[in-house]
C-alpha cells in the first residue's frame, strides 16, 4: 500500500479554525492509542495542527494545562484523551515544559495525512475511545456515565458494555456539535487480549454484532454519515505486531483473519506486520527504537520498568511506527474506502440531505429510528449481543438459548436499555418465544421479564402507583395445571392470562405498548387478552435493563429461549 504523505508533516502556517469537521473515531486496545514509548516531539514530528481537534475526556487539555469538560472540542496532540489515560507515563528524558508528556499515538498523524485531501474550510475531529488491554472475551466491564464516559477500569468490548456506550455516546456527541459534521470512518485496532483467552474464537462474531448494533444505533444520524448511512461508514481494522503473531499464530489467524474479506460490509483490514521491504514494523523493543543522542532523540531504549508501558516490549508499535507506517496505511485505507466522493474530489463540503420524513439537522439530531434489542440465535452467543448472565449459565445449542440455574440462587439475564421511557412515549412491542422444562409442579415459577426506569415520566404518560415506572414486571407460573402470565406488583399480583395447559412445548408471548400511555395489550400463543395498565412500584428488578429471571432461589422450571425482540417505535413525525 503506497504512503500518501511523508513522515513528519509540519503545521501549515495561516490555518484557520474549521467551519465543520470530518469525524474519525479511534477505538480498540493499546495498539490503537498512545503506547509508543519514544520521546514525544511536539515541536516537530508530533506538532499539533489548528484544523485537527479531539473530543475531551480528561479535566485539562494537557497535564496542568487549560481546563476542559467531557466532550468539549479541544486541540489534538500526540497523547489523545482515550479511556485509559497515558498522559502521566512520561519518558525519563522528557521536558514537560515543552509538552513532551505521556506517550505517542497515531491519531494525530492519521488526521495530518488526510488534511491535504479535505476542503480547506473543514477540519478533522478525532473521537478517542481506546482502552489498553480491552477484549470481547475477558476483562472488567467497568461503568459508564454520560458526564464522564467509560471508567478507566472498563476493559470489555461488546454490545451494551460501558466501552460500547462510550463509543456510541461520544460519536453522537461529535456529530451533534455541528449539523455539517460528517462521520468519515472508525479506526479500529483490537484483538490481542482475546488471543490470550481460551474463548478467542468468539471475538469475530462479537465484533460483527457490535458493528451492526453501532450502525443501528446511529440510524437517527444517518444524514451525517459518509454515504448517507451508518452502514456506509468504513471500519478500518488495523493489524498487530509481529510478536503477537509469533506467540499466538493459530489465534491470530482466527481473530485478525476474520477482519479480512469483509469489504462488502465496509470492513477493511490494514496489514502492519512488515513494511514494504518485508522488515518487521518497529515496536517498543529497545533495539527497534534506539536513542539518537546526537539529534536529541531518546527512544524506548531509555525507558525502564518504572516508566515503560509493558514489560513485553515487542507487543506494542513504536513511536516511529505511529508517525509513519501506521497512519500512512490507515489514512490510505480511509481514502480508498470513503475518499472518492464528490466532496473529496471537488474540495467542497458534502451536502447533508434531510433524512426521510425529517428536516435538515439544525442542532442535536433527534433519534428517528426504531430501537431494537434482541436475543437471537442467528446473532451469536448472548454475550456478543450485549447480554450478561448472573447466578446461572446460558448456552447456545441447536438454535436455542438454554439457561441453567445455580443452586439456591435466582438467575438473571440482563441487557441495558438506555431509553426505556421511550417505550411508553413512543410505544413498542416485546415478543418472546420460550419453553419451560421439568414436570408440572403447582405454583412453581418459570420465566420472568422485568424492566423499570428511574427517569421521570413526561406529562403525556399518566401512570398510577408509587415508586418507579415499571414497564415490565411479569412472570409465568403454574396453578391448577395451567401456565399463567402474572403481573408482579408489590400490593398483590394479578393474573393477566393463560397460555393453556402446562407442557414443555414452545410458548409465544407478545406485549404491545400503546404510545403516550401506560396501556399494554398482551397476546399469549396468538390470542389477544384484555389491555391493562403498567404502574409505578417499589420492586427492585430491572433498573434500566431488560431482565429475564426465574424469580426465586427455590426450584423453578428450566427455561429455553428461541427468540426475544424488544422494539421501541420511532417517534411520531410532527
UniProtKB/TrEMBL annotation:
Residues 424-534 form the DUF6645 domain. The keyword NAD does not apply. Residues 354-365 have a biased composition (Low complexity). Keywords: Hydrolase. It holds the Pfam family DUF6645. GO terms for molecular function: hydrolase activity, acting on ester bonds. Residues 23-219 form the Sialate O-acetylesterase domain. Residues 346-368 are annotated as: Disordered. InterPro entries: Carb_Esterase_6, DUF6645, SASA, SGNH_hydro_sf. The keyword Metal-binding does not apply. SUPFAM superfamilies: SGNH hydrolase. This is 9-O-acetyl-N-acetylneuraminic acid deacetylase. It comes from Shigella sonnei. The lineage of its organism: Bacteria, Pseudomonadati, Pseudomonadota, Gammaproteobacteria, Enterobacterales.
